[in-house]
Hints:
This protein has 314 residues and is α/β, with parallel strands linked by helices. The protein is built from 9 helices and 15 strands. Strands 1, 2, 8, 9, 10, 11, 12, 13, 14 and 15 form a 10-stranded mixed beta sheet that branches. A 5-stranded parallel beta sheet has the order 4-5-6-3-7, with helices on both faces. A hairpin with an 8-residue loop joins strand 1 (3-5) and strand 2 (14-16). The radius of gyration is 23 Å and the shape is elongated.
Amino acid sequence: MEFTLWSIYMTSNFVVNDPDLMRCLQHIIAHPADPLYNSFILNGDEISGGLILAQLYHNLSEKYPEREILYLQEYDILEFIRARPHELLMSYHRLHPNLFCVLLAGLELTSLNKTEQDKLALFLKYLTKQNIQVVVSTFLVAERSFSDCSAITPEVWSWYMSGRDYETSRCKTIYTKDLSAALTIEQDKKRLKLFSLFRKSYHFGELYPGILEKDGKNIDRYSMQLGICWLGSYEPPQDKFPKAICPRCQKTALRPYSCIASPLSGRHVIKFYCYNCRERIATNDALDYYQLLRTYGTRKRYRVVPQEGIKKGE
């Protein structure tokens, strides 16, 4: 069974191939607040978790249009918890009598202090007691002994252990868009030769000649170069992002190794490398994948900081 994800990025190109997880999600949609699935915790890959919760929100909204769904993402969760006193959170159901589901995408508990962690855990426990479905995607992996979880409070550990967790794997989320029209390295070599002999200009939005050839042959298989013109430069790990289907060998083995703003090419250009057949392609026509890179690749921990004593641009 495939789970098509499009809610945030308005695309059906992201697919999760995990039949067991799909059965759990379909059960939640058909039977919200079933004690066996409440709370339901997606653990591990933040991208898969975020995409899955976005699609779950879409499916629940379609099936239950008259009911209220609280859907919060990473930074919204922190603001929601910090802005509300404990008493208000414990009265939340009475203030929102039509609420039947709460979805928290990208919960990072290390961003909360101990008091805020307790507020959140008690809030989620309260919701489940009121037969309100709770689904959370997080990076927390709580061991069976609280003594091994010093980063979280007893209340968080108790909530986690009372729920049902499912480990999400990034290798099961793939990008299925047809990239056969993307520029390959061989095509780029021919274009570069053609332009040097006959053409002196090209159309705005057209990938400029040499965009792949000038990268050389050495591709860093661990990190990628991500440059968002107004946000700065980042180096997130390649394997953080879904693989794409190679237009040459048809294997799901394409990884992004670069995404840089290119005024000459009209927008941000994504470059992929196939770890099966070693093909390289470039495209400026994958907006949904670019949105994914921008959302999850521009984390503070991935930011490239200029070395001290070296001026920017040198």
